[in-house]
Amino acid sequence: MRKEKKMLPDFEQSCSYFSQCGIELSYEAYEKFDIYAQFLVEYNEKVNLTAITEPTQILCKHFIDSACLLKYADIKPDSSLIDVGTGAGFPSVPLKILRPDLKITLLDSLNKRIDFLKQLCDKLEIDAEFIHGRAEDFSKMPEYREMYDISCARAVASLSTLSELCIPFVKVGGQFISMKGPTEDVSRGTNAIEILGGKIEEITDYSLFDEQRKIVTIRKISQTPIKYPRNSAQIKKKEL
Ligand code: SAM
Predict the structure, then answer these.
(1) Ligand 1 center–CA 84 separation, angstroms
(2) Does an H or E element contain 235, and which?
């Protein structure tokens, strides 16, 4: 696991970026983030994973941005968490690096990204479950429906669509946490959230270095009606 030549800014500098966002970084976690950054950039040459390839930008815009979820949401020890549309592992892989107690499931409809994630988690020596497929198909299956303490998503779709993709995975009493940009109109998601058994608990606006961000935390207060999620064509045609 040890690697002498680092891609990320040195440990002290990286700690300082994390601490500007109120997050502590151990040396062990730093080493894992460095392996992550290096593998991300290398793999990105053959498979499109991210437009961000400059090391400090990877640190701030992917790793620390993902880690902010730990700061602004209350995640109980040993929670099970499904990351819907995880792409190159954001936010769940940084969360797992910082909170090894979490049980993470990485779901994406693109198999090339799931292949990358399997190799990445192997390199990082972290446990994860991988699902290649569409959220709206898997959350209908009894082994995945209402089975998770938390579902989360960063940069996948509007809050209304995301609610339909994410809330069915969550146990009653659990949370759906959506990481959004500043322009997201949360009011457009409220109808869907209510229909799907959720209730907005908190909307947190914060700044990540010079950019504005939003985390919307939704509590699941009742079971999702069995007719949801609808199929992908219906979801695309009309938001709830
Ligand atoms: N969450 C990552 C991030 O923040 O960098 C990736 C965001 S990327 C813009 C959206 C990802 O969601 C893509 O990898 C895409 O394949 C996946 N995706 C979109 N719709 C999906 C669905 N219905 N089910 C599963 N994955 C989906």
Answers:
(1) 7
(2) helix 232-237
